[in-house]
Amino acid sequence: MAPQNHSPALPAPAGSAPYPMAHPGYGKRSAPNQLAPVADDFALLPLRERYVAGFIERLPEGASMSVKCLAQQIPLYGQQAMASALTALSVAGHLRRVRCAVGDGDQVRWVFRTSWSRTARDNEWWAAHLAGGPLSVPTAAPTAAPGPAPAIPVPDAPVPAPEQAPAQPAVPAQRAAVPEAHSPAYLALAELGRRDTRLTLSAEDCAVLEGLAEQWFARGVNTDYLTGALLAGLPLKVGSPYGFVRDRLIKKIPPAAPAAPTPPPAGAPVRHVLMECTECGAPGPAEALPDGLCRPCRRPKTATPGPTPEPPVERDVTALVAGLRDLLKAP
Q1: What is the number of domains present in the chain?
Q2: Where does a domain end: 94, 113, 131?
Q3: 22 or 95, which is more confident?
Q4: CA of 44: how far to CAs of 3, 35, 161, 205, in Å?
Q5: b or e along 120-132 (b: 16 or more beta carbons within 10 Å of the residue's beta carbon)?
Q6: How far is CA 129 from the centre of its chain?
Q7: What is this structure's pTM?
Q8: Tens of pLDDT along 211-256?
Q9: Which of 34, 70, 35 is closest to 55 using CA atoms?
Q10: CATH code of 123's domain
């Protein structure tokens, strides 16, 4: 009969507890278009920020990024030190806190995310990233391109003589009469004399004033608008049509129309994204939060002065002594 071994089995080695994850849709989100990781990614940061950045870089997607959770996982720093480190990483261009609206109709809710980029980014890149615009791709150090291959010498070969083109008969070219095309600005100026004889301009006047009239068309007006503005309120007699029209072209030019925003393509999802201040959590557009901080948090911290103590009240010693004597005389 084989002997039985009653010794207990060796315990399995204890593994590290998994990092707490945020709810679906929350937590860490890595930014696109990053450079390949290298050993000195965060070498320019201070020691504390370099340690925290390396820890966040190793976290999985969707990991909880709250200050309390990070402080529990990094025993070297408390919650206040962790909040200061995240603020410094935001200023350095590695981190942004955002709010995103998800859902449709009445089921829209706001989720909180932390966008993380191992490659430091500027404010313009973060604004384009949150707005869904085109993003610039960082480029690594340029490498020397291989030069062209050396030419291989070949033995001399007889070069064929070029073929002679047949001689063309010398016929003088006939010049066709092509009417000269004028711009809409020139034609609008020429139309003034037909609308009102007081503003009759010559061909030379129209050619000189054509540049001023083209500035009106560049600001989005048409021919009817231009001629109507030049013919409105004419005096009974115009001594110099050229000078009168030139003066109105300069002084009555309309303001430049604002550029219309480019509508999103049909079927594209509408993104409702607000950036959050990394330090206090105040929401706002990316333009109002440079470095991920709102205006009050960007101001230097100054000590709040305490209340000024009031000077001691002067007391009448003679009246005080007289009052004490009266108290002693009382039965």
Answers
A1: 2
A2: 131
A3: 95
A4: 65, 16, 68, 66
A5: bbeeebbbebbee
A6: 8
A7: 0.48
A8: 999 999 988 888 888 988 899 888 988 999 999 999 999 998 888 7
A9: 70
A10: 1.10.10
